[in-house]
## 1
Amino acid sequence: MHWRAILRLFGILLVLYSLAFLPSLVIALFQGDGQVGTFSASLFLTVGAGILLWAPNRRQQHEISVRDGFLVVTAFWVLLGMVGALPFEIGLGWSMTDAVFESVSGFTTTGATVIGSGIDQLPPSIQYHRQQLNFLGGVGIVILAVAVLPLLGVGGMQLYRAESSGVTKNEKMTPRIADTVRSLWLVYLALTVACALAFWVAGMSLFDAIGHAYAAVGTGGFSTHDASFGYWNSPLIDGIGIFFMLAGGVNFAVHYLALQRRSLGPFVRDAEVRAYGLIFLGGTLIVAITLALTGTYATGWEALRHGAFQVASILTSTGFTTAVFADWPLYLPLVLVTLSFIGGCAGSTAGGIKVVRVQLLAKLGLRQLFQLAHPQAVTIIKLGRRPISDQILFSVWGFYVLYISSTLVLTMAMMGAGLDLLSAFGAVQATINLCGPGLGKVAVSFAEVNDSVKWLGTFGMLLGRLEIFTLLILFLPAYWRH
């Protein structure tokens, strides 16, 4: 383990991240909201910590190995959560628990919050900082999922076999990783700018439009208002939100190819995107029809509008709301929780198991049934037109087992920390799936739960964001042996 090279890298990354405090500092200066000292202190503390890590190790330029990569990715995500918490601790006087939970929720694009009410009254610079966490976390996640985790042999992109993309376990969209990162950044930025402009034209203030574009494309779910999208009660704004949440849940490699070829063909030909679209349409029909038949809303149009918005929000693990879905009738809360476990596409900002894995698990199950009926038959599982190796299927199955096992263990831990079964499961569903809204006591926020639950939730968010393997491997004694 090249410890000094790792510390040098952390130092450089912290100095670079300190620049993210500048926009909030400028807003604090112009708005006069009393937070200039908060963001000045946060900036200098982060720069100082970065220099302290970098200076003694500046000549340690060993190449980071794959084994080192697991620790680097996990530790830096934790470090970002702690640094992003500084404005909440310094400016709002929050406890370390609340501040780190909010920060990690932002960076992992979960959208769960410890603020029960009063988001509207937060200083504008703090509001911007919360929204920016979703933006930076979102682009970081895309780069992590498409350019970094495949090099470690984990993550959704190693499973990606869409015919239109050519992106496989050991391939990148462009020959050099730097070019890949640059391409992803441009796609992500273009979508964010387009989303912000659309929200602004539809009636949001420029400040709200930018903040909600950060959270929509990043599928983060933070809002500048307690009522989230319900604040505007606008079908047009809801529709724009649905479009860009769904866009954020699509593999960014497919976005890149579509822009490069100036064609919608990559979206149409991609097996995962097609399945993702069908899941959204099917979920919307089930929810909207049930809402209409139960009279939850006055008209069928209202049922369709709110149903489509919540399905898009939960499927993409964004967490924006126009209603509290936990209060919806019959089986609807369970339908939406199930969608949160499915999640978006691999290589997107969405959470959950990912559509491509669900597809392969379903095909694997059907193959087993077929072989029971035809024991001598030789069957090959394909995604699109590409055959999937047994090694990848084994990896998918392993991921699924660890994901469900982690969900059950965390639910028991949440119950041990004092939550009832519904709230405990809802808290785990909200965090490990990076969804935000949960069930029971955490249907709206984590404001009323104790610190133990919040730390467990923080761990769950990191576990879900880092694709399970990246974090859990650090708990293996074999990993630390030379």
## 2
Amino acid sequence: MSELCNQEKTVFSRPKTIKEDYDYTFCAGCGHGVVLRLVAECIDELNLQKDTIAVASVGCSICLEKYYDLDVVGSSHGRAPCVATGVKRAKPNKIVFTYQGDGDAATIGMNETIHTACRGENLTTICINNTNFGMTGGQASATSIIGQKTATTPLGRDPKLFGYPLKIAEMVAMCEGSCYVARCGVFNPKSIIQTKAAIKKAFENQIAKKGFSFVEVLCACPTGWKMSPVESMKFIENEITKTHKLGVFKDT
């Protein structure tokens, strides 16, 4: 037995960027925890912990300082890109990223997201798209898909009443200042691996001073969707990806 113990090797451990004593506040089955870890792993692998500043906005991302052992700046709802722009221009040698939801980056703050991309600010935005306002009660967001039932579309999203889903990644890709735009997910092992690669590339682009990188991540919101975690994963893969198609939309 002692010989077997001596042969054990650590193959999985907590990223240094994640605090040891963090208090996890997300709902069970939510995709935020996975993405937070992927971001932390990328920061560790690129040795950026001492040089990174995160910008949190209102929503499920509001408590980043609880999870990350980083400098974290708070912003009002939808305004994280504006705050990040100020931080990056004041500290151009720092790595600056925003962590936002779709209600934040693609709905209330869509204007800020697009103008930041058009200016080509050398920073990174990670947009968690769970197609609703997850923290405030599950209301419809700009990215909610047709037929989706939410707190404000109880009969399903009807385009005649609420318009069509906004596809934020495609819009950002059209901006000349954006250098890398991808949409991925965290609903199965393959998608998680692809998401980490996209996040890492976005940080590498910022190091190389290429411009604005935008990574949209399709995530589950079992509470807002009123589904089990397993049903939520299937909903992303079988329904949401039909509207919000996965892929790299720009890579310069």
## 3
Amino acid sequence: MSGYVVRRVGQAVVVMLGVSVIVFLLVHLVPGDPIRRSLGTRFDPHVYQLLYERAGFDQPLYRQYVTWLGNALQGDLGVSFRTGRPVRGMVLERLPATMSLAFAALFIGLVIALPAGIISAVRSGSRTDYSVSALSQVGVSIPDFWWAIMLILLFSLTLGWLPPSGYKSPLESPVGFLRHLTLPALSVGLISGSILTRFVRAAMLDALHRDYTRTARSKGLPERVVINRHVLRNALVPIVTVAGLQLGFLLGGVVVVEVIFAWPGLGRLAYDAVLRRDYPVLQGAVLLVALSFVVINLLVDLLYARLDPRIRYE
């Protein structure tokens, strides 16, 4: 087990190194001069030259990368061109909002997917199965921004039940936090639920046709016991895999929803950094999302052995 963890951590380091190279190169391919843009109308050639050299833009690209990587390994992600604040503080400040939205959306997705996928698999070939499959296909096909706009029109402008945008800290107002969280979490959770429903159904169908299921039924066990103890438990490994991938995607792939709802997460931070050509902030946000994705995948792999005793890490 320990050997497997060490190997996976080594692989994670290699992946993060590759991500850092790609992020650094792609960010520097974005057109525009970030120093000139940050100065705005207060352009001064002397100040511009000082900031240009302080940012290291007068150095070759490979040397800029080595310097940036060395600082990043020490926890220093640089300073924002726009605000002058340390990037590490900015991304860590936005991380709780993104994590709360991601976990809430995944929770909604699982609440939708588990009963829908199980019922669809148990009643395979019935009208219920076809209805669930059709609805999940519709949910996957509709983009998150459409869900966001429709939910705002219904629950905010028409019914007036929930605020259309904004954010409340859970420490200041737990009820206000949940009210502001509901619509963005639903916008993403409906799509996540549609995706997960299809995988839950496929995993359940596979488990339903296994020998252990036929054996359990031949013993005369109630159908509910067969489904819960034998079928669902053995179907959890692929379901957890997809759920982990969904969580990693939600941590970095809800930029549009965060912008629509003015949600102060990493996605919105990265979006603003692109518009302002704020290289250090964009690099820091992307690196944190990539690190979160790698950690989630590692935790999901380690969870397999708890879900299925047949899995051993040698």
## 4
Amino acid sequence: MAETVTNAAAIGEDYLQPGRFIDSDHPAIAAFAVRATASASDPVAAAVKLYYAVRDEILYDPYVPAEDPDTYRASAVLAKGRGYCVGKASLLAAAARVRGIPARVAFADVRNHLATPRLLELIGTDIFVYHGITELWLDGRWIKATPTFNLTLCEKFRIRPLDFDGRADAVFHPFDRDGRRHMEYLRQRGSYADVPVDVLMPAMLEAYPRLAEFGKAPRGDFAREAEEQAQGSSHG
């Protein structure tokens, strides 16, 4: 196990302990964290390596069932190799805790100007409530990390991949590679030691009345949709 962050006591043990969804005590999470950070020499380097491991090894999939608790559980997301923003944020937080880096999940409402037509049809809006990110305690302050979109998806969608250096916040780019509006932050929803499903789910059901039908819809292929949309835009 790597070194424990010396100032963790100043921010509370909740951000180092396993939770119901940020289940950092799961053996698979521990193995993932140790493998990903094998050559890291300090917490910042470890955080960076964990970020890229979660960003690129776990595929972004917005078509996961919102009513399934495993959608938000770090170990389940790792096992499936795919997840949406909250699940990936949960996994990064869990892996960071394994390495002794205090971590939590935070949420914001965003407007995604480049969501695919099928996804927009299913949820009925381009506003995504409770978009999940990870916050990591590094060098005495909380740093935002957003491991949502894997590199291959960014290439298909023609959006700039979001990099992370462990020192500056990594939040979505407002524009894509072609100058189109991409992501707009609308409202901050706070930070939590564990995924607040009891808060998140009612908010999602209110925002997306068709959410109960969402899990019954045929599974989409978001990467293919993104590629087709980018090709259509370039030909337009």
